């Protein structure tokens, strides 16, 4: 197996681990929690089962149903792009590969829900002093961390590349 393919396979495996963790925790939340009834874990953290028919922060949740297939198609397109992008990265680009694998796993985890259920299962509720962050799940967390890492990589990898000896600077 060529180096790029072997490297990509590792990142695809990580994406599948994210999907499995996401789907497993959503199954537990769906079977063990009562819809919209918070279970206090810490003073700032509850488990609260919600069904999100929209995108992040319930964007377009009340749009009438078309958003299910729109977001499913978008997740599929982004996932396909990431699969090819990961295939073309080399082993030295592990930070970007990690970020993309997290986004891929999260997108696929939520895609499974959208296609199978028509909504995304959310259950992690973080709050402080009466302010509640929108409920989310493992897939959403993976996408958020991955997106953050992509931004960090894009900011710092270009700086590192500009300072590398191959470019005549030091």
Characteristics of this structure?
single chain; 4-stranded antiparallel β-sheet
How many structural domains are formed by the residues? 1
- How many beta-strand runs? 4
| Mean residue pLDDT | 87
Structural Rg: 18 Å
Strand content: 5-15%
Query: Total helix count?
Result: 4
**Shape annotation:** globular
Helix percent band: 55-70%
- Spatial strand sequence of the major β-sheet: 1-2-3-4
Termini separation comes to 35 Å
Largest sheet at a glance? Answer: 4 strands, antiparallel
**Low-pLDDT windows of residues:** 160-165
Q: Structural class of the secondary elements?
A: alpha+beta
How do the helices and strands follow one another from N- to C-terminus?
A: HEEHHEEH
What does this entry look like structurally?
With 170 residues, this protein is α+β, with helices and mostly antiparallel strands. The chain has one domain (3-67, 77-162). It is built from four helices and four strands, in the order H-E-E-H-H-E-E-H. It has helices spanning 3-32, 66-88, 94-117, 138-163, and strands at 39-42, 45-52, 120-128, 131-132. A four-stranded antiparallel β-sheet has the order 1-2-3-4. The protein starts with a helix and ends in a 7-residue tail after the last helix. Mean pLDDT is 87; it is low at 160-165.
Briefly characterize the structure.
This protein is an alpha+beta fold. The chain has four helices and four strands; from the N terminus they run αββααββα.
